[in-house]
Amino acid sequence: MKTLSLFLSAALLVGAPAYAAQKLYKDYPADVMPELSESGEYNVGVKTITANYPNPVMTMDGKQTERSLTLEVWYPAAEKTDLAVYSDETRNGNVFEIQADAYRDASMRPTEEGYPVVVISHGYTGYRTLMYYLGEHLASHGYVVAAIDHTDSTNKDVNFAENPYSGFPSTLLNRSRDQVLTLNAVTSHAFFSGNVDSEHAGLIGYSMGGYGAVNTVGGCYSFNDQAAATFTGGKDPAVIEHVKQALNTCAGGNASGDETLPAWKAAMALAPWGGQHQLFDTDALANINVPMLYVAGDNDDISGYQGVRWLFEHTGNKDTKLLTIKNARHNIAPHPAPKEAYGNEFDIGTYLEPAWEEQKLNAINEHFALALMNCHVKQMSDYCDFLTVSGSSDQAPVEGKVPPAWKGFDNRWALGLKMESKD
């Protein structure tokens, strides 16, 4: 894995300034981490921008309102400036700062062929730097990566302790729309437009971000009366019918999966929500033509592992795959917990996995995200081989012989994974 600075424990921070940014990762030898989790050749810049919807948007209750998103965008940098600091807060509202491995507002490294764009979408609730490790990692390999603060759906917007579902209707309605807007906003932005490839893009969504990602690449929603009432709180039949009409759209608010943006070349859905309630139209799932990689813990008790399997089994693209992380629950995507989350289960429960170290999970995500994007977005066929691993990674002896390790993993260091393909 990339060389990263040692995580500073609370004990080490005694006497340090309260505003000191944390470094969340340990230094591990590259041999114990997946090959494609190693940083690329580019220095990474990062910039915060705003993406505005060009017209007022409709809310779930039929009102029109202005909507904008805050984006954190990573990109290959031409220079080194001051290292960035990411500032966010836990579900309890505890503010924390993380030391980045990216240079704030550095000039962009020019390119003639253009850098493909990858959009990253967090869960409910979350924040735009929840998967900053993926943003920095992919940018170091020649991508422009835009991560979204989904308005109404962040830790800052939702008082999860007192009114945990206040932002959920907006999340159901806007998650896919936000992903489409973000791609268009970055490719047209003055700072990026001259150096991005607007025809080749990838999408990574976690939890509700995965719910949106499936829709964005053509998996139309199919809320029935009961689901519309359950997840929005509606009771009046007329209201429920309006909610269904608002929700049951495709590819970012369109009427059909045929209107999926052709720029989308690959999507990675990490613990995607919605399959456990079968909120997607099976015919639309069968017609998805974008390569999909589903990733899920086999003990996911939020999105439901069988729900993710349902999505995998009904997604029609021949390149669809399911990576199962054994003995994992739902928290397979966030960065390691900041020290401010260690005071209670309510906060740390959104980061911590019972049986896995977050840094190892992050490295696995980096490895397969880069393989997926390089294979299908950049069309670098050598990287497709990293996706053709199959069955268990455990190297359990067969007739007294130990099978070789998965491609990209050293012997003994791929324990606990399983890959399935459509064929």
From TrEMBL:
InterPro entries: AB_hydrolase_fold (IPR029058). It comes from Alteromonas profundi. One of its GO terms (biological process) is lipid catabolic process. This is Acetylhydrolase. The keyword Signal applies. Keywords: Hydrolase, Lipid degradation, Lipid metabolism, Signal. Residues 1-20 form the signal peptide. Pfam families: PAF-AH_p_II (PF03403). Gene3D superfamilies: alpha/beta hydrolase. GO terms for molecular function: 1-alkyl-2-acetylglycerophosphocholine esterase activity. The lineage of its organism: Bacteria, Pseudomonadati, Pseudomonadota, Gammaproteobacteria, Alteromonadales.
